[in-house]
Amino acid sequence: MDERYICYCGLYCENCAVKARIQPKAKALYEDMKAAGFENVIHLLPGGSGFWPFLKDTAEKGTCVSCKEGSGRPDCGIRICAKEKGIKMCALCESYPCNRFTEFLKNYPQLEKDNALLREQGLEAWSKLQDERRTQGFVHQDAKK
Q1: For residues 55 and 26, is the Cβ–Cβ distance under 8 A?
Q2: pTM of the full structure
Q3: Residue ranges of the chain with pLDDT lower than 70?
Q4: Which of 21, 75, 77, 96 has the fewest CB atoms found within 10 Å of its own CB?
Q5: What pLDDT shows up at residue 143?
Q6: Please, how many CA atoms are within 13 Å of residue 114, restricted to the half-sphere of its CB?
Q7: At residue 88, what are phi and psi to the nearest 5 degrees?
């Protein structure tokens, strides 16, 4: 497990649809388009001048790292609170769950159980679950279905 991808809220960025599904597809599309010579003509297409650098950057550098590394919404109340309190993950806070999670948990229903696992069994058990999900192709968006 790469701890850079552990979010304060308890999500794991390696299980984000953007990182797990979109980024590999962007890389494949970029490589196919580059092999076909699009790099030399993309600027002639409407929006091509903006699209090509975006696609190249996504393919080569990825999309984001994690909220702890500066990605995500700068105004995220969960992140701001965790940073102010100096905690690694919100589930480890004595005030968890707090009102910042009310709406958030509606979008990520598995997070309540994940954070309970973290509190009860520790980071190792939580990490194992996240790694198992990643190898099975799970992304957080799947839990909303």
Answers
A1: yes
A2: 0.80
A3: 145
A4: 75
A5: 79
A6: 25
A7: -75, -40
